[in-house]
Amino acid sequence: MTKPSQPVDHLPLADGHTVPVYRWVPNRPNASNFGDELGPMIVRALLAQHGKHHLQVIDAPAAGRSKLLSVGSIIHNARKGDVIWGAGINGKVWPIHVNGKIGIVATAVRGPLTREVLKTRGITCPEVYGDPGLLFPRLFAAELEQAIEKRRSAGPTGGIVYIPNLNDERLMSTGHLALTADIRSVSPGMTPWDVAAEIAVADLVLASSLHGIVLAEALGTPVRPIASLFEPAFKYMDYFLGTGRPSAAFSTSIPQALQSPDLPAPVFDADALMTAFPLAMLDLA
Length: 285
Description:
By secondary structure, the protein is an alpha/beta fold. The chain is 32% helix and 11% strand. It has helices spanning 34-49, 112-120, 136-139, 141-152, 166-171, 174-177, 192-200, 210-219, 234-242, 254-258, 270-275, and strands at 18-21, 56-59, 68-69, 83-85, 105-108, 160-163, 183-185, 204-207, 223-225.
């Protein structure tokens, strides 16, 4: 039986000037992962859309203030007083790093698997699902158009792109990939704009990167998921279940993916996800 949520004693989430947003960063010099860069970008865009231009999105401090967790499998980094909007559980670190998560607020999560984990730990969570990355084209239409035009002028378009998970790119042997000359590899270390532009000009996306899948679906490019060699299936299935695809299947290699069907289109309520954005918790003004 699920215990009721314990009362939340919020540390300041906003100070009238700044909003701390958690962003996971690889523990390597000059490394980045485009999917983890989406969270602060999306929060900044939504604040602007609501007329909160005076609020600056900053990287979450280690302690002393509550923070917002949005895009990514980052809930194990939540602390008392934090707010979750669209984030998910990381299959590599639960349940040990999720136990004891009390006093956090969830307004939306990536999918029902995450919601069930939170519920079993006494955290109330509404049935509002979806990765906020799905909102990217809605929030950045003009910027995306510019990035896509820049990409079109840089070289051939169309064809197939492959977007590996960060750990797949770093640790997988090149022999396993079986990339052919007609498949362009897109690094997850590229900027969100460059990755989105590559996806937008492609005819097909193959991806073990979850946010490669998310952005492809957001941009309407056909996509086929490839199982990561280094990431548990939890976060992928959480996302698929939260977007109406309980039967989504992975390929285990690029050759197999080339013979597989495209993922069916996601089914989710973008308006509900945007309405769940915790605007009232983010500003003192």
